[in-house]
Amino acid sequence: MSAPQLVVHRDKELMAQATAARLITEVVDAQAARGTASVVLTGGRNGNGLLAALAASPARDAIDWSRLDLWWGDERFLPEGDPERNDTQAREALLDSVGLDPSRVHAMPASDGPYAGDADAAAAAYASELAAAAGPEDDGPVPAFDVLMLGVGPDTHVASLFPELPAVRETERMVVGVHGAPKPPPTRISLTLPAIRAAREVWLLAAGEDKAEAAGIALSGAGEVQAPAAGAYGRSRTLWLLDAAAASRLPQALYPRASA
Ligand SMILES: O=C1O[C@H](COP(=O)(O)O)[C@@H](O)[C@H](O)[C@H]1O
């Protein structure tokens, strides 16, 4: 487990641009060291903002996109191409405009595919895909992703692990179907905390006033069942990337601010 490190940017635009630059460097370094890189994408406003910033960055061409494996931390269990799918939004924001190898883009199954209506079976299939990609050096049934990104929800959810729902308590399976999510749609697929913790680096993204309470709770010693973001950490680094609005309710000891 790596203790959280915080980086606070002035506003969400700067946070997205700086995180895009950070991601480019990480991917380029991983490709230089190992030939390939693996990144886990997140959905939501902050995740899509980051992808849009990456698409707009001239430095994006430093990445060899054909040697990048992309995975998702969660997905809304909806038909292929649905505008609310995280996969659809990521393709529009970035993926359709770079030269990815389609065989390395590992979208989570859609609700109208071979697992029609069965999110649990779809989750098991994604777990098998992850296990097939893991090598002996990964030391487990999922790859040691270079960077795994998670948007933090206003209720402290990450991926589709919502407070108090069974998925956040999962300790054995790497991917689960989520039922009854409080944020629409109710049926989802999600990596679990053990899968998230297999990543070398976990980056939590929180921008905007509506994330301030969640960031404050998760970084104040809350339990992971009540505040799933508190249970998300990487093997070698856990990085919280915030804007000033989202950092406004962090404990002073973590993020000192001049008193008003
Ligand atoms: O539904 C989801 O929400 C979270 C957070 O989204 P945000 O819009 O509040 O930033 C996201 O990280 C997750 O991938 C997504 O499925």
TrEMBL record:
Domain Glucosamine/galactosamine-6-phosphate isomerase span(s) in chain numbering: 11-240
Keyword annotations of the record: Hydrolase
Pfam families named among the record's database cross-references: Glucosamine_iso
Reaction equations catalysed: 6-phospho-D-glucono-1,5-lactone + H2O = 6-phospho-D-gluconate + H(+)
Pathway per the UniProt entry: Carbohydrate degradation; pentose phosphate pathway; D-ribulose 5-phosphate from D-glucose 6-phosphate (oxidative stage): step 2/3
The EC number(s) this enzyme carries: 3.1.1.31
Gene3D superfamilies named in the record: 3.40.50.1360
Record keyword Hydrolase present: yes
Highest taxon, organism lineage: Bacteria
Coiled-coil region: none
NCBIfam families: pgl
Entry similarity comment: Belongs to the glucosamine/galactosamine-6-phosphate isomerase family. 6-phosphogluconolactonase subfamily.
Name the record gives this protein: 6-phosphogluconolactonase
Organism: Streptomyces salyersiae
Lineage: Bacteria, Bacillati, Actinomycetota, Actinomycetes, Kitasatosporales
